[in-house]
Amino acid sequence: VLAFSSVEADAQFRGKGLSANYGSTDFNDFQDEVVTLCEDRTPNEYFRLTIEGDCRSVVRCDKAGIAGTIRLAKVKCPSGLAFDLERQTCDWKASVNNCDRLSKPRLAKPNLHTVEPVCPDGQLQCGSGECIAREFFCNSRDDCQDGSDENVCRGDEDPNKSDVCNPAECFLPDCFCSADGTSAPGIAEGVLEIANVPMMITINFNGAVNDDNMRELYNKLFHIERINPNGCTAKGTF
Question: Mean pLDDT highest for which of 24-28, 106-110, 125-129?
Answer without folding.
Answer: 125-129
